[in-house]
Amino acid sequence: QVQLVESGGGLVQPGGSLRLSCAAPRSxxxxxxxxxxxxxxxxQRELVAAITSGGRTNYGDSVKGRFTISxxxxxxxxxxxxxxxxxxxxxxxxxxxxYGVRGYWGRGTQVTVSS
Length: 115
Hints:
Layout: E1 5-7, E2 10-12, E3 18-23, H1 26-29, E4 33-39, E5 46-51, E6 57-59, E7 67-72, E8 77-82, E9 91-99, E10 102-105, E11 109-113
Parallel strand pairs: 2-11
Antiparallel strand pairs: 1-3, 3-8, 4-5, 4-9, 5-6, 7-8, 9-10, 9-11
């Protein structure tokens, strides 16, 4: 059973910052594309950001310029630095590992942006 372990969610005021972390098994982390998705109540799950094993990144349009995805290969961990947070960023954030038709999900961590 592959486990992706997320951490770092919480409550933050508009304009604030949070950093999410996701640790994966080394066998997964070394070759899989790692990503973050989010799902707000009543909405479909959407891509936030992804990073390939080679470091190429991709971002959802709504977070470009505010969020940064990165990976630490020594720690088998992918990070999502979220700045200038807005109330519409409120959602459950899920870590994802993808390689071809194979994919794994974390359990999710809640991010709430509210004053």
